[in-house]
Amino acid sequence: MGMPIYILGTHTTLMARCILQGRRALHSVGVKVHPFVKEALNDRLPVVALESTIITHGMPYPQNLSMAKEVEEIVRMNGAVPATIGILNGCIHVGLQNDELECLAKRKNVVKVSRRDFPYVLSKGLSGGTTVAGTMIVAHKAGIPIFVTGGIGGVHRGGEKTLDVSADLTELGRTPVAVISAGIKSILDIGRTLEYLETQGVCVATFGESREFPAFFSHQSGFQAPYKVQNEEDAAKLIARSLALQLGSGVLIAVPCPEEEAVSGQLIEEAIQQALREARERGITGKELTPFLLPQVNELSSGKSLNSNIALIKNNASVGSRIAVALNKIQRTQGRREGTSLSKKAFSAPRPVVIGGINVDFIAKVKASVMVEGGQTNPSTVRQTFGGVGRNLADCLSRLGKAPVFISAMGKDEHSETVLRHCRHMDMSGVSQLDGHNTATYCLVVASSGEVRLGLGDMEIHQQITEQYVSGFKESLCRAPLICIDGNVPVSTIQYICQFAREHRLAVYYEPTDVDKASGPFFSDCWRSLACISPNLRELRAINRTLGHPVPADLPSKLEDVVETAVFLVLPLLRELHCVVVTLGHHGVLVCGRSVGGSVSLHPGLCSKTTASELCATHYPAIPVPVEELVNVSGAGDSLMAGIIAGLLAGEDTNDCVRMGLLSASLSLRSYEPISPAISATSVNVERVQAQRWLGTKTWKLS
Questions:
Q1: Which domains, from first to last, does the chain contain?
Q2: Staple 65 to which of 105, 113, 136, 303, CB 3.0 to 4.6 Å?
């Protein structure tokens, strides 16, 4: 069978074909992919593969289970999605549930599964932990380029006579997956293993300042690696080049064990030699040798090797997930440059861009119908959630399958770790993490009826979403079918986006955020470049006041008066804006703009300000939510706009777009999270909204 010839520059397309073929192969043998992993792969987010022999054969219970859960959590905290790979009852799992992890951790007589073992284990319906080689095979077929482990196998001591060489080495020579490990297990012949890897054509580099190849438990092995990468960005560039060249071989990044946990090489060497003597006396060889040696070495070192083992695996997970995030950024940039795709979903259409804030929200909902002031404690339910208008919009759009490019900033602190963990279903690669800054926090007091009574915020970090930072995403901005920016962003950045949009004929939608920030773009003429804004009535009044237009002193509460006031305040803006979406809370939404085909056009590409079409306004009632089901109003408006935008990007008409927004808002009103986890492309789509029974709309012509 001849070798395929690849043309450099089209590697992303070729990679997509390989991934598709690999997934088909996995599907044909019955593979269960965890929903979070499947969603991340489809949305082209960073995913890290994790092996399972370390659970089944590397550590005793319960340390193996707690270690596995902690490693997955570390991967999430660094912005990637963990995918532990194992076999349960003849089914390959890519991503394991907690109960499945526990099953593998407790189960006896599970098989250690390498390349040669798959056919037998699957055909017999057995369970097993995948080795480095076994995990690499599954990860590659699933389209996961980064794999984190403890240490790889190698040439066994005396292997020049016994030919006992781990399949991990040959797999590294023929499977293009980057393996992040603590080097080669010190119970092996490190020198001969490095020579064998060279023969297999595997690129080997140490991580950090030194080329000293780590000896698993200790930093010193006495051998030098061919190369070194100083940080995750360097490692990602190396891996990206290897994948681009289509060499067909893997990359090994060797990460030294943390200094404070490193064990004396002499202590470990003495324990290894004694354990090897016992193995020879018992006739233990082959794949049974390592599972025998590790607990023996741990016992002989008084438990120090196990502690060091756990520490280095956690460290590898941290380093490996950061490399995965950095590689993901490179692959996204490369994919956009080539105009090719890694997955049909991710690149089937240009991606919208959302620029705005991220908050950690603390929401206190008062239990009593009347709130007592004066320093007294009001019995309440207090919850931590994650908000920020930009984050909410990006969250909802991600759940609706639109995979937005999200540009924001947060601190590098304890809050940022929880944000990344919570937002793992989103592309967070455009979010800057800044030392010395606080992640934005927002404290919200909500009455028992669900209405917001008081808000307190620490939002200084939003000022770091600067023109300079956003300008680094010019390519994404130019390709975006729509740019959405919120009022948390500095006015100078909003002005830059408006100018950029004018020059490149881009559609920008502005979400005012709150009354104090609503007028940001309206202090200059930059607002004339906006296509659409989505204020509530108070924000709309503030905008008109800034522009010098007359405004009412008080705002009405009856629907007829609310609509009349909204129309009065919208008309001056429609001389420049294409569309204004006024959110009216429990009254629904008023969509104002130019009429196309009998309804307001939401997209500026369908008509222009100079078109002879008439202005009109259409009122859409809200979906009724019983008071007992009303939980949180903080994200309803953002869900509404995200649903409208998702419909717009899907090419739906105005009625269906608005109703997708209303359905999204009704789901979020029932959720403790600002954006309901129940929102998805399945629960909110044009088929679903067309099947609903809707209250009637009403349209007015505007003079």
A1: 11-335 (3.40.1790.10), 348-702 (3.40.1190.20)
A2: 105
